[in-house]
Protein backbone atom coordinates (compact mmCIF):
# COMPACT_ATOMS: atom_id res chain seq x y z
CA UNK A 1 0.00 0.00 0.00
CA UNK A 2 1.43 3.35 -0.99
CA UNK A 3 0.87 6.57 0.94
CA UNK A 4 -1.19 9.14 -0.92
CA UNK A 5 0.67 11.98 -2.57
CA UNK A 6 0.32 15.27 -0.81
CA UNK A 7 0.57 18.72 -2.22
CA UNK A 8 1.72 21.68 -0.15
CA UNK A 9 1.01 25.19 -1.35
CA UNK A 10 2.78 28.07 0.35
CA UNK A 11 1.93 31.64 -0.44
CA UNK A 12 3.35 34.72 1.21
CA UNK A 13 1.83 38.12 0.70
CA UNK A 14 3.86 41.28 1.17
CA UNK A 15 0.91 43.31 2.46
CA UNK A 16 -0.20 40.82 5.07
CA UNK A 17 1.59 39.82 8.22
CA UNK A 18 0.41 36.21 7.94
CA UNK A 19 1.77 33.44 5.77
CA UNK A 20 -0.73 31.11 4.20
CA UNK A 21 0.03 27.42 3.97
CA UNK A 22 -2.49 24.96 2.58
CA UNK A 23 -2.10 21.22 2.24
CA UNK A 24 -4.19 18.97 0.04
CA UNK A 25 -3.98 15.21 -0.28
CA UNK A 26 -3.99 14.01 -3.86
CA UNK A 27 -5.01 10.41 -4.35
CA UNK A 28 -4.98 8.79 -7.72
CA UNK A 29 -7.06 5.75 -8.51
CA UNK A 30 -5.90 5.65 -12.12
CA UNK A 31 -4.01 2.60 -13.28
CA UNK A 32 -0.47 3.33 -14.51
CA UNK A 33 0.05 3.43 -18.25
CA UNK A 34 1.90 0.77 -20.20
CA UNK A 35 5.10 2.85 -20.35
CA UNK A 36 5.01 3.49 -16.61
CA UNK A 37 4.59 -0.22 -15.85
CA UNK A 38 7.49 -1.16 -18.15
CA UNK A 39 9.67 1.58 -16.68
CA UNK A 40 8.86 0.51 -13.12
CA UNK A 41 9.68 -3.11 -13.94
CA UNK A 42 12.95 -2.36 -15.78
CA UNK A 43 14.26 0.26 -13.34
CA UNK A 44 13.67 -1.34 -9.96
CA UNK A 45 14.70 -4.48 -8.13
CA UNK A 46 17.27 -6.99 -9.32
CA UNK A 47 16.25 -6.54 -12.95
CA UNK A 48 16.78 -2.78 -12.64
CA UNK A 49 20.29 -3.26 -11.23
CA UNK A 50 21.12 -5.72 -14.03
CA UNK A 51 19.84 -3.26 -16.66
CA UNK A 52 21.95 -0.44 -15.19
CA UNK A 53 25.08 -2.63 -15.13
CA UNK A 54 24.43 -3.76 -18.70
CA UNK A 55 23.90 -0.15 -19.79
CA UNK A 56 27.18 0.86 -18.15
CA UNK A 57 29.10 -1.91 -19.90
CA UNK A 58 27.56 -1.01 -23.27
CA UNK A 59 28.34 2.68 -22.72
CA UNK A 60 31.97 1.80 -21.83
CA UNK A 61 32.44 -0.18 -25.05
CA UNK A 62 30.81 2.49 -27.22
CA UNK A 63 33.13 5.17 -25.80
CA UNK A 64 36.13 2.82 -26.09
CA UNK A 65 35.43 2.04 -29.76
CA UNK A 66 34.80 5.70 -30.61
CA UNK A 67 38.08 6.66 -28.92
CA UNK A 68 39.96 3.90 -30.72
CA UNK A 69 38.63 4.88 -34.15
CA UNK A 70 39.20 8.58 -33.48
CA UNK A 71 42.75 7.92 -32.27
CA UNK A 72 43.46 5.78 -35.30
CA UNK A 73 42.52 8.53 -37.73
CA UNK A 74 44.16 11.32 -35.71
CA UNK A 75 47.52 9.50 -35.39
CA UNK A 76 47.47 7.85 -38.79
CA UNK A 77 50.83 8.11 -40.57
CA UNK A 78 50.75 9.84 -43.94
UniProtKB/TrEMBL annotation:
Annotated transmembrane regions: 53-74
Record protein name field: Small integral membrane protein 1 (Vel blood group)
Keyword terms: Membrane, Transmembrane, Transmembrane helix
Top-rank taxon, per record: Eukaryota
Keyword Cell inner membrane: no
Pfam families, per database record: DUF4731
GO molecular function: protein homodimerization activity
GO cellular component: cell surface; plasma membrane
InterPro entries according to UniProt: SMIM1 (IPR031744)
Region annotation (Disordered) ranges: 1-25
Keyword Disulfide bond set for record: no
Amino acid sequence: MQPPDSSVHYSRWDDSSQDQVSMAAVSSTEEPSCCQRISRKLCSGKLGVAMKVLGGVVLFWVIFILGYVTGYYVHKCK
